[in-house]
Amino acid sequence: MIDTIHHLVERFGLLAVFIGCMAEGESVAILGGFFAHQQVFSPWQAFATASAGAFFGDTLFFVLGRRFSNHKWVRLLRRRPGFSHAYRMVQSHPNLFVLANRYIYGMRLAGGIAAGLSRIPVPVFLALNALSALVWAALFVSLGYVFGLGAEHIIGDALKGHQRLLIGLGIGVVVAIAAWLLARHVAKKEPRE
User: Is pLDDT at 151 greater than 90 in this prediction?
Assistant: First the structure.
């Protein structure tokens, strides 16, 4: 079982990091950094994959808002909690919003759609989005890498074997659940329109 998990992470781990970072991917980026520390893949691969996933994900939501604003799926996203707040923010501070949107958990989908519906020029959005994605990936992949260093000191030789994969997956699940609970808590406080 452990060997199968190890093989799957080695084979599809970077793809999972890319897909996970396209949406709300903090926990996936941290997990990518942890696995980079454990030498499942290299740190530069984890960083490049996380930043590419974050960039393409936000760009996709931007394009959906810009080109498909009347589509049923986009109209559903516009009704999500937090959308009205995101739209007001992108109207008043477009550059700052694009740089900061990915750091507000639970707002990336709504924020990307809101940015697409705004008047921000496409080249400006792409440049700010790329910068934000690079900084975001460096931060969260580094957190995972540093956590791997700390875990190795605390747990010691246990991380040398396949147990590192289970520990990493456990960490990813805990971080994802904590972030989801926080996003739910914040969404409940947002008044619906």
Answer: no
